[in-house]
Amino acid sequence: MYRTHSNGELRIENVGQTVTLAGWVQKSRDKGFMIWVDLRDRYGITQLIFDEERTPKEMVNRAKTLGREFVIQVKGEVIERVSKNSNMPTGDVEILVKELTILNKSIVPPFTIEDQTDGGDELRMKYRYLDIRRNPVKNNLMFRHKVAMETRKYLSDEGFIEVETPYLIKSTPEGARDFVVPSRMNEGQFYALPQSPQTFKQLLMVGGMDKYFQIVKCFRDEDLRADRQPEFTQIDCEMAFVEQEDILNTFEGLTRHLLKEVNGVEVDKFPRMSFDEAMRRYGNDKPDIRFGMEFGELNEVAKHKDFGVFNNAELVVGIAVPEANSYTRKEIDKLIDWVKRPQVGALGMVYVRCNEDGTYKSSVDKFYDQNDLANWATITGAKPGDLICLLSGETDKVRAQLSALRMEMATRLGLRKSNVFAPLWVVDFPLLEWDEETKRYHAMHHPFTSPKPQDIALLDTDPGKVRANAYDLVLNGNEIGGGSIRIHDKATQALMFNHLGFTPEKAKEQFGFLMNAFEFGAPPHGGIAFGLDRLVAILGGQETIRDFIAFPKNNSGRDVMIDAPSAIDDEQLKELNLKIDL
Ligand code: ASP
Q1: With 90 as the cut, is the pLDDT of residue 436 above it?
Q2: What domains lie within the chain, and their CATH numbers?
Q3: Is 140's C-beta closer than 6 angstroms to any atom of ligand 1?
Protein backbone atom coordinates (compact mmCIF):
# COMPACT_ATOMS: atom_id res chain seq x y z
CA MET A 1 0.00 0.00 0.00
CA TYR A 2 1.49 3.34 -1.05
CA ARG A 3 -0.27 5.38 1.60
CA THR A 4 -2.59 5.09 4.54
CA HIS A 5 -3.56 8.77 4.56
CA SER A 6 -3.41 11.78 2.27
CA ASN A 7 -1.25 14.78 3.09
CA GLY A 8 -4.23 16.91 4.01
CA GLU A 9 -5.74 14.57 6.50
CA LEU A 10 -3.81 14.17 9.73
CA ARG A 11 -4.85 16.11 12.83
CA ILE A 12 -3.95 16.26 16.49
CA GLU A 13 -6.29 13.27 17.10
CA ASN A 14 -3.96 11.11 15.00
CA VAL A 15 -0.97 11.64 17.30
CA GLY A 16 0.63 8.32 18.18
CA GLN A 17 -0.48 6.52 15.01
CA THR A 18 1.94 4.97 12.58
CA VAL A 19 1.15 6.15 9.07
CA THR A 20 2.46 5.84 5.52
CA LEU A 21 2.36 8.90 3.29
CA ALA A 22 3.41 9.56 -0.29
CA GLY A 23 3.80 12.69 -2.34
CA TRP A 24 6.15 15.33 -3.67
CA VAL A 25 8.88 17.18 -1.79
CA GLN A 26 7.83 20.80 -1.85
CA LYS A 27 10.64 22.05 0.36
CA SER A 28 13.26 20.65 2.66
CA ARG A 29 15.24 22.40 5.36
CA ASP A 30 18.41 20.76 6.62
CA LYS A 31 19.45 22.04 10.04
CA GLY A 32 22.20 19.44 10.43
CA PHE A 33 20.72 17.50 13.31
CA MET A 34 17.22 17.73 11.92
CA ILE A 35 15.68 17.82 8.48
CA TRP A 36 12.18 19.07 7.80
CA VAL A 37 10.39 18.22 4.60
CA ASP A 38 7.07 19.59 3.33
CA LEU A 39 5.33 16.68 1.64
CA ARG A 40 2.64 17.66 -0.87
CA ASP A 41 -0.17 15.93 -2.72
CA ARG A 42 -3.53 17.05 -4.08
CA TYR A 43 -5.00 17.13 -0.60
CA GLY A 44 -2.48 19.27 1.20
CA ILE A 45 0.90 19.41 2.85
CA THR A 46 2.20 17.44 5.79
CA GLN A 47 5.46 18.25 7.53
CA LEU A 48 7.96 15.41 7.92
CA ILE A 49 10.76 15.44 10.42
CA PHE A 50 13.98 13.44 10.22
CA ASP A 51 15.70 13.62 13.59
CA GLU A 52 19.26 12.31 14.11
CA GLU A 53 18.30 10.88 17.48
CA ARG A 54 15.02 9.23 16.58
CA THR A 55 15.23 8.46 12.84
CA PRO A 56 17.55 5.65 11.63
CA LYS A 57 20.85 7.08 10.38
CA GLU A 58 20.49 5.58 6.92
CA MET A 59 17.15 7.34 6.50
CA VAL A 60 18.57 10.68 7.61
CA ASN A 61 21.35 10.30 5.06
CA ARG A 62 18.83 9.47 2.39
CA ALA A 63 16.77 12.51 3.35
CA LYS A 64 19.83 14.68 2.78
CA THR A 65 19.75 13.69 -0.92
CA LEU A 66 16.14 14.82 -1.46
CA GLY A 67 15.55 17.58 -3.97
CA ARG A 68 12.45 19.58 -4.84
CA GLU A 69 9.69 17.53 -6.48
CA PHE A 70 11.22 14.14 -5.63
CA VAL A 71 8.42 11.61 -5.21
CA ILE A 72 8.78 9.83 -1.90
CA GLN A 73 7.05 7.50 0.45
CA VAL A 74 7.55 7.66 4.21
CA LYS A 75 6.50 5.61 7.16
CA GLY A 76 6.54 7.17 10.59
CA GLU A 77 4.74 8.26 13.70
CA VAL A 78 2.34 11.21 13.96
CA ILE A 79 3.65 13.53 16.67
CA GLU A 80 2.52 16.86 18.04
CA ARG A 81 4.49 19.82 16.71
CA VAL A 82 6.40 22.01 19.09
CA SER A 83 5.72 25.13 17.03
CA LYS A 84 2.30 24.78 15.45
CA ASN A 85 1.23 26.41 12.20
CA SER A 86 -2.38 27.55 12.39
CA ASN A 87 -2.38 28.47 8.69
CA MET A 88 -2.32 24.80 7.70
CA PRO A 89 -5.03 22.23 8.42
CA THR A 90 -2.28 19.75 9.28
CA GLY A 91 -0.28 22.38 11.14
CA ASP A 92 -0.64 20.82 14.60
CA VAL A 93 1.24 17.65 13.73
CA GLU A 94 4.29 16.31 11.93
CA ILE A 95 5.55 12.87 11.01
CA LEU A 96 8.61 11.54 12.75
CA VAL A 97 10.00 9.49 9.88
CA LYS A 98 11.25 5.95 10.43
CA GLU A 99 11.47 4.84 6.79
CA LEU A 100 12.02 6.80 3.60
CA THR A 101 11.69 5.39 0.08
CA ILE A 102 12.52 7.50 -2.94
CA LEU A 103 9.92 6.51 -5.54
CA ASN A 104 11.25 8.81 -8.23
CA LYS A 105 13.72 11.63 -8.58
CA SER A 106 13.07 14.97 -10.20
CA ILE A 107 15.29 17.38 -11.97
CA VAL A 108 15.11 20.93 -10.64
CA PRO A 109 11.71 22.34 -11.70
CA PRO A 110 11.85 25.45 -13.90
CA PHE A 111 9.74 27.47 -11.44
CA THR A 112 8.77 27.22 -7.79
CA ILE A 113 5.74 25.04 -7.26
CA GLU A 114 4.06 27.03 -4.54
CA ASP A 115 1.02 29.30 -4.38
CA GLN A 116 3.21 32.25 -5.28
CA THR A 117 5.45 31.25 -8.14
CA ASP A 118 8.31 32.90 -9.99
CA GLY A 119 7.24 31.27 -13.25
CA GLY A 120 5.99 33.46 -16.11
CA ASP A 121 2.91 32.57 -18.15
CA GLU A 122 4.64 30.93 -21.06
CA LEU A 123 6.93 28.85 -18.85
CA ARG A 124 4.07 27.64 -16.72
CA MET A 125 2.12 26.65 -19.84
CA LYS A 126 5.08 24.74 -21.21
CA TYR A 127 5.28 22.78 -17.97
CA ARG A 128 1.55 22.83 -17.29
CA TYR A 129 1.73 19.48 -15.45
CA LEU A 130 3.96 21.18 -12.87
CA ASP A 131 1.67 24.19 -12.75
CA ILE A 132 -1.24 21.87 -11.99
CA ARG A 133 0.59 20.78 -8.82
CA ARG A 134 0.14 24.35 -7.54
CA ASN A 135 -2.90 25.14 -5.43
CA PRO A 136 -4.29 28.03 -7.50
CA VAL A 137 -4.46 25.89 -10.65
CA LYS A 138 -5.45 22.67 -8.92
CA ASN A 139 -8.21 24.41 -6.99
CA ASN A 140 -9.60 25.94 -10.19
CA LEU A 141 -9.80 22.53 -11.83
CA MET A 142 -11.57 21.15 -8.80
CA PHE A 143 -13.93 24.12 -8.85
CA ARG A 144 -14.71 23.40 -12.49
CA HIS A 145 -15.45 19.80 -11.61
CA LYS A 146 -17.91 20.99 -8.98
CA VAL A 147 -19.75 23.24 -11.47
CA ALA A 148 -19.92 20.41 -14.01
CA MET A 149 -21.16 17.91 -11.42
CA GLU A 150 -23.84 20.27 -10.11
CA THR A 151 -24.93 20.96 -13.68
CA ARG A 152 -25.29 17.26 -14.39
CA LYS A 153 -27.08 16.72 -11.12
CA TYR A 154 -29.59 19.51 -11.69
CA LEU A 155 -30.36 18.72 -15.32
CA SER A 156 -30.55 15.00 -14.69
CA ASP A 157 -33.00 15.61 -11.83
CA GLU A 158 -35.07 17.73 -14.21
CA GLY A 159 -35.30 14.80 -16.62
CA PHE A 160 -32.59 15.76 -19.09
CA ILE A 161 -30.61 12.98 -20.76
CA GLU A 162 -26.94 13.50 -21.64
CA VAL A 163 -26.39 12.34 -25.22
CA GLU A 164 -23.08 12.45 -27.06
CA THR A 165 -23.07 13.83 -30.57
CA PRO A 166 -20.30 13.32 -33.13
CA TYR A 167 -17.17 15.42 -33.45
CA LEU A 168 -16.55 14.53 -37.08
CA ILE A 169 -19.39 16.24 -38.84
CA LYS A 170 -20.34 18.35 -41.80
CA SER A 171 -19.73 22.04 -41.61
CA THR A 172 -22.53 24.08 -39.95
CA PRO A 173 -22.22 27.81 -40.48
CA GLU A 174 -22.55 29.57 -37.15
CA GLY A 175 -20.60 32.66 -37.89
CA ALA A 176 -17.12 31.30 -37.38
CA ARG A 177 -14.80 29.26 -39.54
CA ASP A 178 -14.76 25.49 -39.16
CA PHE A 179 -11.75 23.43 -38.26
CA VAL A 180 -11.62 20.70 -40.88
CA VAL A 181 -10.26 17.18 -40.83
CA PRO A 182 -9.23 15.45 -44.05
CA SER A 183 -10.76 12.05 -44.65
CA ARG A 184 -8.21 9.42 -45.64
CA MET A 185 -10.83 7.02 -46.90
CA ASN A 186 -12.81 9.58 -48.88
CA GLU A 187 -10.31 11.27 -51.08
CA GLY A 188 -10.61 15.02 -51.34
CA GLN A 189 -13.31 15.17 -48.67
CA PHE A 190 -13.28 16.69 -45.23
CA TYR A 191 -15.10 16.47 -41.97
CA ALA A 192 -15.63 19.59 -39.92
CA LEU A 193 -15.33 19.77 -36.15
CA PRO A 194 -18.58 21.08 -34.64
CA GLN A 195 -18.85 24.76 -33.74
CA SER A 196 -21.69 23.45 -31.60
CA PRO A 197 -23.95 20.38 -31.75
CA GLN A 198 -26.78 22.65 -32.93
CA THR A 199 -28.27 20.55 -35.73
CA PHE A 200 -27.75 17.28 -33.85
CA LYS A 201 -29.59 18.47 -30.79
CA GLN A 202 -32.47 19.56 -32.99
CA LEU A 203 -32.45 16.14 -34.64
CA LEU A 204 -32.55 14.59 -31.16
CA MET A 205 -35.78 16.51 -30.60
CA VAL A 206 -37.15 15.12 -33.87
CA GLY A 207 -35.99 11.79 -32.44
CA GLY A 208 -38.23 12.34 -29.43
CA MET A 209 -35.50 12.70 -26.76
CA ASP A 210 -37.50 15.63 -25.38
CA LYS A 211 -34.88 16.96 -22.95
CA TYR A 212 -31.23 16.75 -23.97
CA PHE A 213 -28.03 18.12 -22.57
CA GLN A 214 -24.36 17.56 -23.10
CA ILE A 215 -21.19 18.99 -21.64
CA VAL A 216 -19.37 19.14 -24.92
CA LYS A 217 -16.31 20.46 -26.68
CA CYS A 218 -16.92 22.93 -29.51
CA PHE A 219 -14.41 24.21 -32.03
CA ARG A 220 -14.25 27.59 -33.75
CA ASP A 221 -11.45 28.71 -36.00
CA GLU A 222 -11.72 32.39 -35.16
CA ASP A 223 -9.06 35.02 -35.09
CA LEU A 224 -8.13 34.75 -31.47
CA ARG A 225 -9.23 37.58 -29.30
CA ALA A 226 -7.96 37.93 -25.77
CA ASP A 227 -9.11 35.05 -23.63
CA ARG A 228 -10.74 33.02 -26.39
CA GLN A 229 -9.90 29.39 -26.94
CA PRO A 230 -10.21 27.62 -30.32
CA GLU A 231 -11.70 24.69 -28.45
CA PHE A 232 -14.04 25.39 -25.58
CA THR A 233 -16.76 23.66 -23.62
CA GLN A 234 -20.49 24.25 -23.69
CA ILE A 235 -23.32 23.05 -21.53
CA ASP A 236 -25.52 22.41 -24.54
CA CYS A 237 -29.27 21.92 -24.00
CA GLU A 238 -32.45 21.43 -25.99
CA MET A 239 -36.09 20.81 -25.08
CA ALA A 240 -39.18 19.88 -27.08
CA PHE A 241 -42.74 21.17 -26.64
CA VAL A 242 -41.57 24.36 -25.04
CA GLU A 243 -42.02 28.08 -25.40
CA GLN A 244 -39.42 30.69 -24.59
CA GLU A 245 -40.90 31.06 -21.12
CA ASP A 246 -40.26 27.37 -20.33
CA ILE A 247 -36.64 27.61 -21.38
CA LEU A 248 -36.00 30.79 -19.41
CA ASN A 249 -37.50 29.27 -16.28
CA THR A 250 -35.63 25.98 -16.59
CA PHE A 251 -32.23 27.55 -17.10
CA GLU A 252 -32.76 30.30 -14.61
CA GLY A 253 -33.29 27.33 -12.29
CA LEU A 254 -29.98 25.79 -13.31
CA THR A 255 -28.12 29.07 -12.85
CA ARG A 256 -29.72 29.65 -9.48
CA HIS A 257 -28.82 26.10 -8.44
CA LEU A 258 -25.19 26.66 -9.39
CA LEU A 259 -24.98 30.00 -7.59
CA LYS A 260 -26.41 28.38 -4.49
CA GLU A 261 -24.44 25.12 -4.49
CA VAL A 262 -21.16 26.49 -5.75
CA ASN A 263 -21.11 30.01 -4.35
CA GLY A 264 -23.60 29.81 -1.51
CA VAL A 265 -25.45 32.79 -3.01
CA GLU A 266 -29.25 33.10 -3.31
CA VAL A 267 -30.41 35.37 -6.12
CA ASP A 268 -33.88 36.86 -6.69
CA LYS A 269 -35.81 36.24 -9.87
CA PHE A 270 -33.64 37.32 -12.80
CA PRO A 271 -34.67 40.59 -14.40
CA ARG A 272 -35.51 40.53 -18.10
CA MET A 273 -34.70 43.24 -20.56
CA SER A 274 -35.26 43.49 -24.28
CA PHE A 275 -32.28 43.90 -26.54
CA ASP A 276 -33.50 47.41 -27.44
CA GLU A 277 -33.80 48.38 -23.81
CA ALA A 278 -30.35 47.01 -22.97
CA MET A 279 -28.85 49.02 -25.80
CA ARG A 280 -30.69 52.15 -24.74
CA ARG A 281 -29.93 51.92 -21.04
CA TYR A 282 -26.42 50.44 -21.14
CA GLY A 283 -25.25 50.67 -24.77
CA ASN A 284 -24.54 46.97 -24.60
CA ASP A 285 -26.41 43.70 -25.14
CA LYS A 286 -24.66 42.18 -22.13
CA PRO A 287 -24.99 44.89 -19.53
CA ASP A 288 -23.22 44.66 -16.21
CA ILE A 289 -26.00 45.60 -13.79
CA ARG A 290 -23.99 45.20 -10.61
CA PHE A 291 -23.89 49.00 -10.62
CA GLY A 292 -25.90 51.93 -12.03
CA MET A 293 -24.50 54.68 -14.23
CA GLU A 294 -27.35 54.15 -16.66
CA PHE A 295 -27.35 56.08 -19.90
CA GLY A 296 -29.35 59.29 -20.17
CA GLU A 297 -30.35 60.22 -23.73
CA LEU A 298 -30.09 63.97 -24.11
CA ASN A 299 -31.11 64.80 -27.67
CA GLU A 300 -34.14 66.82 -26.55
CA VAL A 301 -32.25 68.93 -24.06
CA ALA A 302 -28.94 69.30 -25.87
CA LYS A 303 -29.73 70.07 -29.48
CA HIS A 304 -31.48 73.41 -29.03
CA LYS A 305 -28.43 75.67 -28.83
CA ASP A 306 -25.61 76.59 -31.18
CA PHE A 307 -23.32 73.70 -30.33
CA GLY A 308 -22.73 72.09 -33.73
CA VAL A 309 -21.13 68.90 -32.38
CA PHE A 310 -24.35 67.97 -30.61
CA ASN A 311 -26.66 69.38 -33.26
CA ASN A 312 -25.08 67.24 -35.96
CA ALA A 313 -25.06 64.07 -33.86
CA GLU A 314 -27.60 61.31 -34.18
CA LEU A 315 -27.42 60.71 -30.44
CA VAL A 316 -26.20 62.72 -27.46
CA VAL A 317 -25.92 60.47 -24.45
CA GLY A 318 -24.34 60.68 -21.02
CA ILE A 319 -23.66 58.96 -17.72
CA ALA A 320 -23.25 60.38 -14.25
CA VAL A 321 -20.06 59.04 -12.69
CA PRO A 322 -20.49 58.97 -8.92
CA GLU A 323 -18.24 61.28 -6.96
CA ALA A 324 -15.99 61.99 -9.92
CA ASN A 325 -16.32 65.77 -9.57
CA SER A 326 -13.20 65.38 -7.46
CA TYR A 327 -11.25 64.69 -10.66
CA THR A 328 -8.73 67.41 -11.38
CA ARG A 329 -8.65 69.11 -14.76
CA LYS A 330 -5.62 67.01 -15.60
CA GLU A 331 -7.39 63.78 -14.68
CA ILE A 332 -10.37 64.72 -16.83
CA ASP A 333 -8.03 65.47 -19.75
CA LYS A 334 -6.56 62.01 -19.28
CA LEU A 335 -10.06 60.54 -19.35
CA ILE A 336 -10.76 62.39 -22.59
CA ASP A 337 -7.58 60.89 -24.03
CA TRP A 338 -8.81 57.51 -22.86
CA VAL A 339 -12.10 57.74 -24.79
CA LYS A 340 -10.19 58.95 -27.84
CA ARG A 341 -7.97 55.86 -27.93
CA PRO A 342 -8.56 53.88 -31.12
CA GLN A 343 -9.93 50.97 -29.04
CA VAL A 344 -12.75 53.23 -27.86
CA GLY A 345 -12.85 55.65 -30.76
CA ALA A 346 -14.75 58.69 -29.46
CA LEU A 347 -13.91 62.02 -31.04
CA GLY A 348 -14.11 63.89 -27.77
CA MET A 349 -16.00 64.12 -24.52
CA VAL A 350 -18.12 66.86 -22.99
CA TYR A 351 -18.27 66.92 -19.20
CA VAL A 352 -20.28 68.63 -16.50
CA ARG A 353 -19.05 69.03 -12.94
CA CYS A 354 -21.90 68.78 -10.44
CA ASN A 355 -20.81 70.99 -7.56
CA GLU A 356 -21.79 70.38 -3.97
CA ASP A 357 -23.64 73.73 -3.86
CA GLY A 358 -25.98 72.62 -6.66
CA THR A 359 -24.31 74.64 -9.41
CA TYR A 360 -22.76 73.17 -12.53
CA LYS A 361 -19.55 73.82 -14.42
CA SER A 362 -19.22 72.32 -17.87
CA SER A 363 -16.79 72.20 -20.76
CA VAL A 364 -19.53 73.74 -22.92
CA ASP A 365 -20.54 76.67 -20.69
CA LYS A 366 -20.30 78.90 -23.76
CA PHE A 367 -23.39 77.21 -25.18
CA TYR A 368 -25.45 75.95 -22.27
CA ASP A 369 -26.78 77.64 -19.13
CA GLN A 370 -27.38 76.29 -15.62
CA ASN A 371 -30.91 75.34 -16.54
CA ASP A 372 -29.73 73.15 -19.44
CA LEU A 373 -27.11 71.51 -17.27
CA ALA A 374 -29.66 70.88 -14.53
CA ASN A 375 -31.81 69.07 -17.11
CA TRP A 376 -28.87 66.90 -18.09
CA ALA A 377 -28.27 66.11 -14.43
CA THR A 378 -31.89 65.07 -13.98
CA ILE A 379 -31.86 62.81 -17.03
CA THR A 380 -28.55 61.12 -16.17
CA GLY A 381 -29.48 60.92 -12.48
CA ALA A 382 -26.45 63.00 -11.45
CA LYS A 383 -26.11 64.13 -7.85
CA PRO A 384 -23.94 66.89 -6.37
CA GLY A 385 -20.36 65.58 -6.43
CA ASP A 386 -20.82 63.58 -9.64
CA LEU A 387 -19.25 64.14 -13.01
CA ILE A 388 -21.48 63.85 -16.10
CA CYS A 389 -19.64 62.48 -19.15
CA LEU A 390 -21.33 63.03 -22.53
CA LEU A 391 -20.54 61.52 -25.89
CA SER A 392 -22.24 62.17 -29.21
CA GLY A 393 -22.30 60.76 -32.72
CA GLU A 394 -23.81 57.85 -34.61
CA THR A 395 -26.15 55.92 -32.31
CA ASP A 396 -24.53 52.47 -32.46
CA LYS A 397 -21.00 53.77 -32.22
CA VAL A 398 -21.62 56.26 -29.48
CA ARG A 399 -23.44 53.69 -27.37
CA ALA A 400 -20.52 51.29 -27.66
CA GLN A 401 -18.10 54.07 -26.72
CA LEU A 402 -20.08 55.18 -23.69
CA SER A 403 -20.50 51.58 -22.63
CA ALA A 404 -16.71 51.18 -22.68
CA LEU A 405 -16.37 54.33 -20.58
CA ARG A 406 -19.05 53.12 -18.15
CA MET A 407 -17.20 49.84 -17.61
CA GLU A 408 -13.89 51.62 -17.22
CA MET A 409 -15.27 53.99 -14.60
CA ALA A 410 -16.90 51.09 -12.76
CA THR A 411 -13.56 49.30 -12.66
CA ARG A 412 -11.81 52.42 -11.37
CA LEU A 413 -14.50 52.91 -8.73
CA GLY A 414 -14.29 49.28 -7.63
CA LEU A 415 -17.92 48.61 -8.57
CA ARG A 416 -17.25 45.35 -10.42
CA LYS A 417 -17.04 43.14 -7.38
CA SER A 418 -16.30 39.52 -8.19
CA ASN A 419 -18.33 38.21 -5.26
CA VAL A 420 -21.52 40.01 -6.33
CA PHE A 421 -23.65 38.20 -8.91
CA ALA A 422 -26.14 40.10 -11.06
CA PRO A 423 -27.71 37.85 -13.70
CA LEU A 424 -30.34 38.95 -16.21
CA TRP A 425 -32.04 37.73 -19.35
CA VAL A 426 -31.73 39.80 -22.49
CA VAL A 427 -34.60 38.87 -24.83
CA ASP A 428 -36.11 39.86 -28.19
CA PHE A 429 -32.87 39.97 -30.10
CA PRO A 430 -33.03 41.04 -33.74
CA LEU A 431 -33.22 38.03 -36.04
CA LEU A 432 -30.82 39.46 -38.59
CA GLU A 433 -27.78 41.63 -38.49
CA TRP A 434 -26.48 43.70 -41.41
CA ASP A 435 -22.93 42.96 -42.43
CA GLU A 436 -21.21 45.91 -44.06
CA GLU A 437 -18.44 43.78 -45.51
CA THR A 438 -20.59 41.32 -47.44
CA LYS A 439 -23.45 43.79 -47.81
CA ARG A 440 -26.07 41.37 -46.66
CA TYR A 441 -27.94 40.13 -43.64
CA HIS A 442 -26.58 37.41 -41.38
CA ALA A 443 -28.43 35.47 -38.74
CA MET A 444 -27.63 37.21 -35.47
CA HIS A 445 -27.87 33.97 -33.50
CA HIS A 446 -27.94 31.20 -36.11
CA PRO A 447 -30.09 30.28 -39.12
CA PHE A 448 -32.31 27.92 -37.12
CA THR A 449 -33.69 30.62 -34.84
CA SER A 450 -37.37 31.37 -35.28
CA PRO A 451 -38.60 34.87 -35.97
CA LYS A 452 -41.34 36.17 -33.72
CA PRO A 453 -44.52 35.14 -35.56
CA GLN A 454 -45.91 38.68 -35.48
CA ASP A 455 -42.74 39.98 -37.19
CA ILE A 456 -42.52 37.48 -40.05
CA ALA A 457 -44.29 39.86 -42.44
CA LEU A 458 -41.46 42.36 -41.93
CA LEU A 459 -38.95 39.92 -43.43
CA ASP A 460 -39.73 41.26 -46.88
CA THR A 461 -40.09 44.92 -46.06
CA ASP A 462 -37.71 45.69 -43.18
CA PRO A 463 -35.62 42.62 -42.33
CA GLY A 464 -33.48 44.46 -39.77
CA LYS A 465 -36.59 45.08 -37.65
CA VAL A 466 -37.62 41.43 -37.34
CA ARG A 467 -37.20 40.20 -33.80
CA ALA A 468 -36.33 36.64 -32.90
CA ASN A 469 -37.37 34.32 -30.13
CA ALA A 470 -33.78 34.48 -28.99
CA TYR A 471 -32.34 35.18 -25.57
CA ASP A 472 -29.04 35.53 -23.76
CA LEU A 473 -28.27 34.92 -20.13
CA VAL A 474 -25.95 37.64 -18.94
CA LEU A 475 -23.94 37.53 -15.74
CA ASN A 476 -21.83 40.45 -14.54
CA GLY A 477 -21.40 41.88 -18.01
CA ASN A 478 -20.67 38.57 -19.72
CA GLU A 479 -22.86 36.53 -22.00
CA ILE A 480 -22.78 33.16 -20.28
CA GLY A 481 -25.53 31.52 -22.29
CA GLY A 482 -27.55 32.05 -25.42
CA GLY A 483 -30.25 30.24 -27.30
CA SER A 484 -33.52 30.44 -29.13
CA ILE A 485 -36.80 28.83 -30.02
CA ARG A 486 -36.13 27.07 -33.29
CA ILE A 487 -37.87 26.93 -36.59
CA HIS A 488 -39.48 23.48 -36.81
CA ASP A 489 -41.21 23.50 -40.17
CA LYS A 490 -39.64 23.15 -43.55
CA ALA A 491 -41.33 26.14 -45.17
CA THR A 492 -40.17 28.68 -42.58
CA GLN A 493 -36.68 27.19 -42.58
CA ALA A 494 -36.55 27.49 -46.39
CA LEU A 495 -37.78 31.09 -46.14
CA MET A 496 -35.04 31.84 -43.62
CA PHE A 497 -32.30 30.32 -45.78
CA ASN A 498 -33.61 32.35 -48.68
CA HIS A 499 -33.31 35.57 -46.65
CA LEU A 500 -29.79 34.63 -45.66
CA GLY A 501 -28.82 34.42 -49.32
CA PHE A 502 -28.83 30.65 -49.80
CA THR A 503 -30.12 29.37 -53.13
CA PRO A 504 -32.56 26.46 -52.68
CA GLU A 505 -29.84 24.14 -54.07
CA LYS A 506 -27.22 25.38 -51.62
CA ALA A 507 -29.66 25.10 -48.71
CA LYS A 508 -30.48 21.55 -49.73
CA GLU A 509 -26.82 20.61 -50.10
CA GLN A 510 -25.89 21.98 -46.70
CA PHE A 511 -29.00 21.37 -44.65
CA GLY A 512 -31.02 18.84 -46.62
CA PHE A 513 -30.76 16.44 -43.67
CA LEU A 514 -32.43 18.93 -41.34
CA MET A 515 -35.12 20.00 -43.83
CA ASN A 516 -35.89 16.33 -44.49
CA ALA A 517 -36.19 15.66 -40.79
CA PHE A 518 -38.63 18.54 -40.48
CA GLU A 519 -40.95 16.64 -42.82
CA PHE A 520 -41.28 13.75 -40.37
CA GLY A 521 -43.15 15.43 -37.56
CA ALA A 522 -40.62 17.73 -35.90
CA PRO A 523 -41.96 18.95 -32.54
CA PRO A 524 -41.76 22.61 -31.54
CA HIS A 525 -38.44 22.96 -29.72
CA GLY A 526 -35.85 25.33 -28.41
CA GLY A 527 -32.70 25.42 -26.36
CA ILE A 528 -29.70 27.18 -25.04
CA ALA A 529 -25.97 26.70 -24.63
CA PHE A 530 -23.80 27.99 -21.80
CA GLY A 531 -20.11 28.64 -22.18
CA LEU A 532 -18.79 26.49 -19.38
CA ASP A 533 -15.27 27.92 -19.30
CA ARG A 534 -16.51 31.50 -18.88
CA LEU A 535 -19.26 30.50 -16.46
CA VAL A 536 -16.75 28.73 -14.24
CA ALA A 537 -14.36 31.67 -14.35
CA ILE A 538 -17.08 34.13 -13.31
CA LEU A 539 -18.43 31.91 -10.55
CA GLY A 540 -14.83 31.46 -9.45
CA GLY A 541 -14.50 35.24 -9.26
CA GLN A 542 -11.70 35.41 -11.81
CA GLU A 543 -11.11 37.05 -15.15
CA THR A 544 -9.40 34.55 -17.40
CA ILE A 545 -10.91 31.31 -18.62
CA ARG A 546 -7.46 29.90 -19.26
CA ASP A 547 -6.94 29.51 -15.54
CA PHE A 548 -9.84 27.06 -15.45
CA ILE A 549 -8.74 24.86 -18.33
CA ALA A 550 -6.29 22.05 -17.63
CA PHE A 551 -4.36 22.35 -20.88
CA PRO A 552 -5.27 25.64 -22.57
CA LYS A 553 -3.94 27.12 -25.78
CA ASN A 554 -2.10 30.43 -25.80
CA ASN A 555 -3.20 33.61 -27.58
CA SER A 556 -1.89 32.33 -30.90
CA GLY A 557 -3.90 29.13 -30.56
CA ARG A 558 -0.81 27.08 -29.73
CA ASP A 559 -0.35 24.41 -27.14
CA VAL A 560 3.22 25.23 -26.15
CA MET A 561 3.55 22.10 -24.03
CA ILE A 562 2.99 19.54 -26.77
CA ASP A 563 3.99 22.05 -29.45
CA ALA A 564 0.83 21.94 -31.55
CA PRO A 565 -0.11 22.64 -34.24
CA SER A 566 2.87 21.14 -36.02
CA ALA A 567 3.87 19.95 -39.46
CA ILE A 568 3.14 16.35 -40.43
CA ASP A 569 5.42 14.22 -42.52
CA ASP A 570 5.16 13.59 -46.24
CA GLU A 571 3.92 10.03 -45.77
CA GLN A 572 0.99 11.23 -43.73
CA LEU A 573 0.21 14.01 -46.17
CA LYS A 574 0.23 11.57 -49.05
CA GLU A 575 -2.04 9.18 -47.25
CA LEU A 576 -4.49 12.01 -46.70
CA ASN A 577 -4.23 13.07 -50.33
CA LEU A 578 -2.95 16.44 -49.22
CA LYS A 579 0.51 16.10 -50.73
CA ILE A 580 0.71 18.03 -53.94
CA ASP A 581 3.48 16.54 -56.08
CA LEU A 582 4.92 19.24 -58.26
N1 ASP B 1 -25.77 26.48 -30.64
C2 ASP B 1 -25.90 27.80 -30.08
C3 ASP B 1 -24.52 28.37 -29.78
O4 ASP B 1 -23.54 27.65 -29.76
C5 ASP B 1 -26.69 27.82 -28.81
C6 ASP B 1 -28.11 27.49 -29.00
O7 ASP B 1 -28.79 28.13 -29.83
O8 ASP B 1 -28.60 26.61 -28.28
O9 ASP B 1 -24.40 29.55 -29.53
Answers
A1: no
A2: 12-104 (2.40.50.140), 139-272+424-548 (3.30.930.10), 291-416 (3.30.1360.30)
A3: no
